[in-house]
Amino acid sequence: MHGLINRSIQCFLRDTYGVPLWLDVAAAADLPSNEFEAMLTYEDALTWRVLDAAAVALKKSRAMVLEDIGTYLVSHPNNEGLRRLLRFAGLSYEDFLHSLDDLPDRTRLAVSDLELPELELRQHSASRFSITCNAGMPGFGHVLVGILRAMADDYGALVILDYLGERHQVETIEVTLVEPAFAEGRAFELGAKTG
Amino acid sequence: MSTAQVHPAAGSPGPALLPPLPLGSMDALSPMHLVLDETGHVIHAGPTMQKLRPDSPMAGRRFLEIFEMSRPRAVSSMPALLASAGMKLHLRLRDEPRTPLKAVLVPLAGEGAAAPGALVNFSFGISILDAIQTYTLHSGDFAPTDLTIEMLYLIEAKTAAMEASRTLNLRLQGAKIAAEEQAYTDTLTGLKNRRAMDHILSRLVRTGQDFALMHLDLDWFKQVNDSHGHAAGDYVLQHVARLMVDETRGGDTVARIGGDEFVLLFHNLTRRARIEEIAARLIQRLEAPISFEGVTCRVSCSMGTTLSTFYDQPRAEQLLADADSALYASKKAGRAQHRFFIPEDPPQTP
User: In terms of DSSP H, where are the helices of B184-293?
Assistant: First the structure.
C-alpha cells in the first residue's frame, strides 16, 4: 500500500487520539518502525494489521475506523491541502460528486504511483446518486462515506448516505442530495493564502 | 449593449466569415474578453475581465488608457492595434495592481452602419498564481473548457507531493549523516576510527596542505590490561582519548587506529618546536596516575612524527610508514618519548 495511505492512517490516529495511542497501535501491529514514510510503499498486510490494531484499541469496528479516517481526511486542519484539492472539483456538491469519476486520474497526475480505486457515479434522479467503488481494496468504500459526509458539510449540503455493502469487491454507496445549499459551507478561494 | 454583436471582420485572414456571435455567448465561451469599437474604446467587458477592476467599469474607456502594451511596443492607436491582429500580445494594466496579461486580438466587421472594431481575448498566462491572490476569483470565473483550474489543482497537488518527498529526503539525509558518523567513529573512545583517519589523511595529501602526522602508542598498556582486566584497560583508553582531544586544537584529527595505537593529524602545523611542546605535554598528562575502581593505572606514550614538508609528493602510506619508524625509534630508545622521522634527503627549504 502506498505510503501516503499508511501515513494518513498514522496521522489520523495521532491527531485524533494522541501519540501514545498511535505508538500502542504501531507496537500491536508489529511495525518495523513507528513511522510510515509518505513517499515509500509498504506491504498491504502491514496496513491491515494497523487498521485491525486500531479497531481493537478504539473498541470500534474496522468499518467505523475507516469512515472516521475519511472524515478526518477532509475536516482536520492538518489536511487543509487535501480538502482544497477536492474543492477544486467545482462550485457545488453535485459538481463534486461528478468529479469523483476523475479522482483516480487526477491523483495519478500528482503522485503517479498512488493507485486509488475506480469510482463511478450514476445519477438516478435529480437528487439520487449511487457510487460504486471498485477497490481490490475492500473497505475503501467506508473511507469514501466519511469523505462524502465531510465534503457535504464543507459545501453546506444536506445529504443522506447509505453504504449498501460489497459484492465481488465492488462497494456501493447511495447518496441522496436532500438540500444542495442547506447551510453556509466553508469558504474556498482559488488562491490558497487568501483569507 | 445587449444588441451589439460580434462579427469577425470580412477582410480578416482565415476561412469563411463566421455568423455573428451574440455577446452572451462570448461571455460564456471566453469570460476574459473585451469588445472594442472603431475608435479603440471598450464597448463590452466579459464578466471575468471586469472583475479585475470591480469598481470602475471598463466599458466606455479607451483600451490603450487601461492597458500598457509591452509587446509589440509602440502601439498607440487603434490602427496600430488592429495591425497586431493574431499576434500574441503582452500587456499589463496601467494602474495598480499592474497584473501582466496575455491577449490576442481579432478585427470585427461592422454591423450595418457601425464601423469595424475588435475583439480582444485575455488570459493570465503564468501570472495566474499572483492573480488568484490579488483578485477574488472562483472556478466559475473560468470557462469550463479552460484548463486554468486543472493547472491550479496540479500545482497544489504537486507542491504537496514535493513537500512529502522533501521531508523524506531530509530524514534520509539525517539518517545518512548519522550512519556515516557511526562508520567513522571509534565506539569505545568516541575518537575517529581508522577509516576516518585514512579518509582525512588522503584529503590532506590530495589538497596539498601542510600538516604533521604523529603516530602514538601507549606504553605499559598491556600491563594494565593483564593486571587489572579489560574494564580497566577500556577506561584508560577512554581517559587518554579525552586528554589527547584536550591537548589538540578543534580542527586537528585524533584517531584510534588499533588497540592502543593512535594517529594525530595536526592541520597546517609543521613547526617542530610546537610539535615537541605538544608531545611533551602529552607524555606529562598521560603519565598522571589514573584511578579506576580503587586501583591505580599508570601508562605513558611513545610517539613518532613526520611532516608533509619532508616530501616533494607526499603519499599517505609513506607518511604512515615513516611516522611508524620514528615511533619505533622512540620505543627502542626507552619509551615515553617523541622522535621526528629523519628524511634521508630532505627537500631544500628556501
Answer: 194-207, 221-228, 230-247, 272-286
Query: DSSP letter at B289?
Result: -
Count of all residues that appear for chain A in the document: 195
CATH 3.90.1520.10 fits A90-179, yes or no: yes
- Last residue of one domain, picked from the residues B158, B183, B208: B183
Burial class from Cβ neighbours inside 10 Å (0-12, 13-18, 19+) for residue B51 reads middle
The Cα–Cα gap between B35 and B21 comes to: 12
The strand pairing partners of B303, in sequence order, are B216, B338
Same domain (yes/no): B20, B142: yes
Profile chain B (350 residues) by mean pLDDT over runs of 10 residues.
51 50 83 93 95 94 95 88 93 93 90 74 91 84 88 84 86 86 89 93 92 96 92 95 94 94 96 96 94 92 96 94 96 94 68
C-beta separation of B109 from B10 below 8 A: yes
The model carries a pTM of 0.63
ipTM above 0.95, yes or no: no
Interface contact B153-A111, CB threshold 8 A: no
Q: Are B150 and A89 in contact (CB under 8 A)?
A: no
CATH label of the domain that carries residue B198: 3.30.70.270
Q: Phi and psi at residue A168, in whole multiples of 5°?
A: 50, 45
B10 and B129 assigned to the same domain:
yes
CB contact under 8 A, B157 and A106: yes
C-alpha cell at B98: 499592474
Report chain A residues whose CB lies below 8 A from the CB of B157.
85, 106-107, 109-111
Q: How far apart are CA A82 and CA B161, in angstroms?
A: 11
Residue from the list B136, B140, B160 with its beta carbon closest to the beta carbon of A81: B160
Same domain, B219 and B168: no
